[in-house]
């Protein structure tokens, strides 16, 4: 995977809904800390997946919204709890925001399958507080190639 794209993914801030309120996190933490210090949400099994802009190709808003809604419905049919979340760049001048789904309890292979089906470059998957960026597009790298990250809770 291109190093610039990889850095952008790791620096993306995600706003995740949690019982304690909105949680802002990125994957660019410096080192693995004790997972017992992480918010409860981040200790479970989860994925962050979107259907927007497949293979980084900008699509019209209406098309993106329709694709994203279809993804949500399929995830719910799979009996997953799905919450809306958003990813955005960590730049005060930046305007990039991409709606995503926070999928609770999904298995790694199924999350990869959703990313591949909706032609995403990658997805985020985490279990027991250990997030990883996983390639789901063979034009970026071999499917399933994983880049481990560390949660960084942001204020």
Description of the structure:
With 155 residues, the protein is an alpha+beta fold. The protein has one domain (3-154). It is 26% helix and 32% strand. It contains four helices and nine strands; from the N terminus they run αββαβαββαββββ. Strands 8-7-6-3-5-4-1-2-9 form a nine-stranded antiparallel β-sheet. The model has no long low-confidence stretch (mean pLDDT 94).
Question: Uncertain regions: pLDDT < 50 for 5+ in a row?
Answer: none
Overall tally of domains: 1
Structural class: alpha+beta
Oligomer: single chain
Determine Rg (CA atoms, Å). Answer: 14 Å
> Order of SSEs, N→C?
HEEHEHEEHEEEE
Net shape: globular
Mean pLDDT: 94
| Share of β-strand residues | 25-35%
* Largest sheet entry: 9 strands, antiparallel
- The number of helices is 4
Strand order of the largest sheet: 8-7-6-3-5-4-1-2-9
User: Between the first and last Cα atoms, what is the distance in angstroms?
Assistant: 29 Å
Can you give the helix content as a percent range? Answer: 25-40%
Q: Got a strand count? A: 9
What features would you highlight for this structure?
155 residues, alpha+beta, 9 strands, 4 helices, globular, nine-stranded antiparallel beta sheet
Concise account of the structure shown:
This protein has 155 residues and is an alpha+beta fold. It has helices spanning 3-11, 40-43, 61-77, 108-117; strands at residues 13-18, 21-26, 46-49, 81-88, 97-104, 122-127, 130-135, 146-148, 152-154.
Give the helix/strand layout.
Elements: H1 3-11, E1 13-18, E2 21-26, H2 40-43, E3 46-49, H3 61-77, E4 81-88, E5 97-104, H4 108-117, E6 122-127, E7 130-135, E8 146-148, E9 152-154
């Amino acid at each position: 995977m291109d190093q610039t794209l990889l850095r952008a993914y790791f620096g993306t801030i995600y706003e995740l809904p949690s019982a304690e309120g909105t949680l802002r996190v990125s994957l660019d933490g410096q080192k693995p800390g004790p997972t017992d210090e992480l918010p409860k949400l981040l200790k479970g099994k989860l994925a962050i997946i979107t259907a927007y802009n497949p293979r980084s190709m900008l699509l019209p808003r209406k098309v993106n919204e329709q694709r994203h809604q279809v993804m949500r419905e399929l995830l719910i049919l799979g009996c997953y709890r799905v919450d809306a979340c958003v990813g955005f760049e960590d730049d005060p001048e930046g305007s990039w925001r991409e709606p995503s789904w926070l999928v609770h309890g999904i298995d790694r292979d199924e999350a990869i399958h959703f990313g591949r089906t909706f032609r995403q470059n990658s997805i985020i998957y985490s279990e027991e507080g250990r997030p990883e960026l996983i390639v789901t597009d063979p034009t970026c790298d071999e499917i399933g190639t994983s880049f481990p990250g560390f949660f960084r809770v942001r204020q």
